[in-house]
Design a protein that fits this description.
This protein is of the alpha+beta class. The protein has three domains: about 1-45, RNA polymerase II/Efflux pump adaptor protein, barrel-sandwich hybrid domain (OB fold (Dihydrolipoamide Acetyltransferase, E2P), Beta Barrel); about 55-120, Nucleic acid-binding proteins (OB fold (Dihydrolipoamide Acetyltransferase, E2P), Beta Barrel), CATH 2.40.50; about 125-200, K Homology domain, type 1 (Ribosomal Protein S8, Chain: A, domain 1, 2-Layer Sandwich), CATH 3.30.1370.10. Helix content is about 20%, strand content about 40%. A five-stranded mixed barrel has the order 7-8-9-11-10. It has a three-stranded antiparallel sheet with strand order 1-5-6, with no helix packed on it. Helix 2 runs antiparallel to helix 3 (about 170-180), helix 2 (about 140-150) packs parallel to helix 4 and helix 3 (about 170-180) packs antiparallel against helix 4.
Length: about 200
Protein backbone atom coordinates (compact mmCIF):
# COMPACT_ATOMS: atom_id res chain seq x y z
CA UNK A 1 0.00 0.00 0.00
CA UNK A 2 1.23 3.49 -0.88
CA UNK A 3 0.22 6.89 0.42
CA UNK A 4 1.17 10.42 -0.58
CA UNK A 5 3.49 12.15 1.89
CA UNK A 6 4.89 15.67 2.12
CA UNK A 7 7.94 16.94 4.04
CA UNK A 8 7.33 16.60 7.76
CA UNK A 9 4.84 13.72 7.57
CA UNK A 10 5.55 10.89 10.00
CA UNK A 11 6.21 7.68 8.06
CA UNK A 12 7.32 5.49 10.97
CA UNK A 13 6.99 5.61 14.74
CA UNK A 14 10.57 4.41 15.07
CA UNK A 15 13.95 5.45 13.63
CA UNK A 16 14.39 4.02 10.11
CA UNK A 17 17.15 4.82 7.65
CA UNK A 18 15.81 5.28 4.13
CA UNK A 19 16.34 7.68 1.26
CA UNK A 20 14.28 10.90 1.23
CA UNK A 21 13.61 10.84 4.97
CA UNK A 22 15.05 12.13 8.21
CA UNK A 23 14.96 11.01 11.84
CA UNK A 24 13.92 13.31 14.67
CA UNK A 25 13.58 11.92 18.16
CA UNK A 26 12.29 8.38 17.80
CA UNK A 27 10.29 8.98 14.62
CA UNK A 28 11.05 8.95 10.89
CA UNK A 29 9.71 11.78 8.72
CA UNK A 30 9.35 12.34 4.97
CA UNK A 31 11.86 14.83 3.57
CA UNK A 32 10.23 15.22 0.16
CA UNK A 33 6.91 15.01 -1.65
CA UNK A 34 6.43 11.40 -2.68
CA UNK A 35 4.74 8.05 -2.25
CA UNK A 36 5.49 6.06 0.90
CA UNK A 37 5.54 2.34 0.19
CA UNK A 38 4.74 0.69 3.55
CA UNK A 39 5.51 -2.81 2.28
CA UNK A 40 9.05 -1.98 1.19
CA UNK A 41 9.65 0.91 3.59
CA UNK A 42 10.71 3.38 0.92
CA UNK A 43 9.71 6.85 -0.18
CA UNK A 44 9.43 7.27 -3.94
CA UNK A 45 9.96 10.99 -4.66
CA UNK A 46 7.61 12.64 -7.12
CA UNK A 47 9.66 15.80 -7.51
CA UNK A 48 12.84 17.38 -6.25
CA UNK A 49 16.43 17.84 -7.34
CA UNK A 50 19.64 16.17 -6.32
CA UNK A 51 21.11 16.84 -2.89
CA UNK A 52 24.73 15.60 -2.93
CA UNK A 53 26.04 13.42 -0.12
CA UNK A 54 29.51 12.15 0.74
CA UNK A 55 30.29 8.90 -1.16
CA UNK A 56 27.53 9.43 -3.74
CA UNK A 57 28.55 7.90 -7.08
CA UNK A 58 28.15 10.49 -9.83
CA UNK A 59 28.74 10.79 -13.57
CA UNK A 60 29.99 13.92 -15.28
CA UNK A 61 31.98 15.41 -18.15
CA UNK A 62 35.43 16.95 -17.77
CA UNK A 63 35.02 20.63 -18.72
CA UNK A 64 38.45 22.10 -18.05
CA UNK A 65 41.90 20.88 -17.07
CA UNK A 66 44.54 23.03 -15.42
CA UNK A 67 47.63 21.86 -13.53
CA UNK A 68 46.13 18.40 -12.84
CA UNK A 69 42.93 19.96 -11.49
CA UNK A 70 39.85 18.83 -13.40
CA UNK A 71 36.62 20.80 -13.44
CA UNK A 72 33.72 18.38 -13.92
CA UNK A 73 30.20 19.17 -15.11
CA UNK A 74 27.69 17.16 -13.04
CA UNK A 75 24.63 18.87 -14.61
CA UNK A 76 22.93 19.55 -11.27
CA UNK A 77 25.63 21.38 -9.33
CA UNK A 78 27.54 24.61 -9.85
CA UNK A 79 31.13 23.55 -9.21
CA UNK A 80 32.79 20.16 -9.01
CA UNK A 81 36.51 19.47 -9.12
CA UNK A 82 38.83 16.49 -9.06
CA UNK A 83 42.46 16.91 -8.05
CA UNK A 84 44.67 14.57 -10.02
CA UNK A 85 48.28 13.60 -9.52
CA UNK A 86 51.15 15.28 -11.34
CA UNK A 87 52.44 11.80 -12.04
CA UNK A 88 49.32 10.48 -13.76
CA UNK A 89 50.14 7.92 -16.43
CA UNK A 90 46.93 8.53 -18.38
CA UNK A 91 45.61 11.99 -17.49
CA UNK A 92 42.01 12.78 -18.37
CA UNK A 93 41.18 15.31 -21.04
CA UNK A 94 38.42 17.79 -21.76
CA UNK A 95 35.26 15.98 -22.89
CA UNK A 96 35.95 12.70 -21.08
CA UNK A 97 32.94 11.12 -19.37
CA UNK A 98 33.85 9.93 -15.89
CA UNK A 99 32.33 8.16 -12.92
CA UNK A 100 33.57 9.31 -9.52
CA UNK A 101 32.61 9.46 -5.86
CA UNK A 102 32.07 12.52 -3.71
CA UNK A 103 34.91 12.94 -1.24
CA UNK A 104 33.85 16.24 0.29
CA UNK A 105 31.51 19.21 -0.13
CA UNK A 106 33.15 22.55 0.64
CA UNK A 107 30.96 25.41 1.85
CA UNK A 108 27.95 23.71 0.24
CA UNK A 109 29.18 25.08 -3.09
CA UNK A 110 32.06 22.95 -4.34
CA UNK A 111 32.04 19.18 -4.68
CA UNK A 112 35.40 17.43 -4.37
CA UNK A 113 35.56 14.17 -6.33
CA UNK A 114 37.84 11.15 -6.11
CA UNK A 115 38.07 7.46 -7.14
CA UNK A 116 37.45 8.42 -10.75
CA UNK A 117 37.34 6.20 -13.82
CA UNK A 118 36.82 7.16 -17.44
CA UNK A 119 33.74 5.71 -19.17
CA UNK A 120 34.40 5.06 -22.85
CA UNK A 121 32.25 4.21 -25.84
CA UNK A 122 28.83 4.53 -24.23
CA UNK A 123 25.80 6.80 -24.30
CA UNK A 124 24.74 9.28 -21.61
CA UNK A 125 21.12 9.61 -20.48
CA UNK A 126 19.87 12.38 -18.18
CA UNK A 127 16.91 11.70 -15.89
CA UNK A 128 15.36 13.45 -12.91
CA UNK A 129 17.69 12.83 -9.99
CA UNK A 130 14.68 12.21 -7.76
CA UNK A 131 13.83 9.13 -9.86
CA UNK A 132 17.26 7.50 -9.59
CA UNK A 133 16.39 5.28 -6.57
CA UNK A 134 13.41 3.89 -8.53
CA UNK A 135 15.54 3.31 -11.62
CA UNK A 136 18.06 1.39 -9.52
CA UNK A 137 15.32 -0.48 -7.65
CA UNK A 138 15.40 -2.36 -4.37
CA UNK A 139 18.67 -4.30 -4.16
CA UNK A 140 19.38 -3.05 -7.74
CA UNK A 141 16.66 -5.34 -9.12
CA UNK A 142 15.34 -2.88 -11.69
CA UNK A 143 18.60 -1.76 -13.23
CA UNK A 144 20.07 -5.27 -13.20
CA UNK A 145 17.17 -6.73 -15.16
CA UNK A 146 17.38 -3.93 -17.74
CA UNK A 147 21.11 -4.59 -18.16
CA UNK A 148 20.58 -8.35 -18.38
CA UNK A 149 17.81 -8.28 -21.01
CA UNK A 150 19.54 -5.66 -23.17
CA UNK A 151 23.05 -7.07 -22.69
CA UNK A 152 24.41 -3.72 -21.64
CA UNK A 153 26.63 -2.31 -18.94
CA UNK A 154 24.80 0.44 -17.05
CA UNK A 155 26.36 2.88 -14.60
CA UNK A 156 23.97 5.11 -12.65
CA UNK A 157 25.00 8.43 -11.12
CA UNK A 158 23.07 9.77 -8.16
CA UNK A 159 23.09 13.14 -9.92
CA UNK A 160 20.66 11.85 -12.56
CA UNK A 161 23.19 10.98 -15.26
CA UNK A 162 23.26 7.39 -16.53
CA UNK A 163 25.85 5.82 -18.83
CA UNK A 164 24.90 2.83 -21.02
CA UNK A 165 27.14 0.74 -23.25
CA UNK A 166 26.55 -2.61 -24.94
CA UNK A 167 24.35 -4.47 -27.36
CA UNK A 168 20.87 -2.89 -27.24
CA UNK A 169 21.44 0.61 -25.89
CA UNK A 170 18.23 1.84 -27.53
CA UNK A 171 16.01 -0.62 -25.65
CA UNK A 172 17.88 -0.03 -22.39
CA UNK A 173 17.32 3.72 -22.80
CA UNK A 174 13.63 3.19 -23.55
CA UNK A 175 13.22 1.06 -20.42
CA UNK A 176 15.08 3.55 -18.20
CA UNK A 177 12.97 6.47 -19.43
CA UNK A 178 9.81 4.42 -18.92
CA UNK A 179 10.79 3.82 -15.30
CA UNK A 180 11.42 7.55 -14.90
CA UNK A 181 7.96 8.39 -16.27
CA UNK A 182 6.11 5.71 -14.31
CA UNK A 183 8.09 5.74 -11.06
CA UNK A 184 4.86 6.11 -9.07
CA UNK A 185 3.20 3.00 -10.59
CA UNK A 186 2.87 -0.09 -8.40
CA UNK A 187 4.36 -3.33 -9.73
CA UNK A 188 6.66 -1.44 -12.08
CA UNK A 189 9.54 -3.92 -11.86
CA UNK A 190 7.33 -6.70 -13.20
CA UNK A 191 5.86 -4.43 -15.89
CA UNK A 192 9.34 -3.52 -17.13
CA UNK A 193 10.35 -7.17 -17.09
CA UNK A 194 7.36 -8.12 -19.22
CA UNK A 195 8.16 -5.35 -21.71
CA UNK A 196 11.77 -6.43 -21.98
CA UNK A 197 10.84 -10.09 -22.37
CA UNK A 198 8.42 -9.26 -25.17
CA UNK A 199 10.78 -6.91 -26.99
CA UNK A 200 13.81 -9.18 -26.80
CA UNK A 201 11.71 -12.19 -27.84
CA UNK A 202 10.27 -10.52 -30.92
CA UNK A 203 13.42 -8.59 -31.78
CA UNK A 204 11.44 -5.40 -32.30
Amino acid sequence: MREIVVPGDVVAERPMRMHNSYIYGNRTYAATVGLFDKEHNEIIPLEGGWVPHIEDAVIGIVKNVKNSVYEVDLSYFKRSILIGSKFETHPMKRGDVIEASIKDIEDRRTIILYRERVLRGGTMIEVKASKVPRIIGKNSTMINQIAEFTRTSITVGRNGVIWVRGEDVELATEAILKVEREAHVAGLTERIKMMLEERTKTGE
